[in-house]
Amino acid sequence: MLTSKVESFNKLFNDLEECEMLLDMALDESDTDTIEEVSLQIKAIDKEISKLSLELMLDEADDKNNAIVSINAGAGGTDAQDWAEMLFRMYMRWTERKGFQVKIIDFQPGDEAGIKGVTFTASGEYAYGYLKAEKGVHRLVRISPFNASRKRQTSFASVFVYPELDKTIVIDIEDKDLRIDVFRASGAGGQHVNKTSSAIRITHMPTGIVVQCQQEKSQHRNKEMAMKVLKARLYQNEKQKQDEKKQKLHESKDDIAWGSQIRSYVLHPYQMVKDHRINLELGDVNSVLDGAIDPFIEGVLLSR
Length: 304
Description:
The chain is 43% helix and 25% strand. The protein is of the alpha+beta class and 304 residues long.
């Protein structure tokens, strides 16, 4: 992975050097055709640099994982439920463009319109890495289609994104990580127990977990039982880590209301989408609501 990124960087660096030499020669000779050709090459290189920069930002442990996305209507009644459905449609359009597979896990329709909430998985390379940038409260300002007075309404919906964690925890124990001590068993068991070194103590060096077994007469059986106990404890260790990670993600949720929004979508009195984290504003609201959210996602990731 790192090797391929270094190779990509070196190639882009060399391509830029070649373009610089060609441009100097073309300018000396007033060769407009070559100048135009180099200009196109530089634009293509610029795109590749942006792509590589983005890939370098997707370097956290869970970035490659599939994503679990939850959208929930917040303050704003029916308008908020309609807004939640609009967001859901926006992400469906975006996942289609990315070629991600989507599976609905939970869908709660609204009382009059829209949805109260929806949870879905987005499966594909770096799905979580991209979608984690969308985590937060999204605010909509528009003339309410559900208000007879046609008043301007502000609605909120939350988007929360979890990495999909592997449910199968594989416990791979390497011999080099174990210290195995053999000693004489003590306690009930008669003369045999006291005369032979059949008891086993296993220390798992990376975690410091120590297990021992002395109930069987056979050293082999005691080792087998001790390994079972060790695997069970290591499994519980990993499960606890995953549970703590989920809890930490859950606790980072913001209230779905005013003041905590990451992005505002304004349809009236003017049209604009603004990401408050990076101060990026786009005027084509319809395109954004149709799934063109890459500028925001990339902007947030590159702001790191």
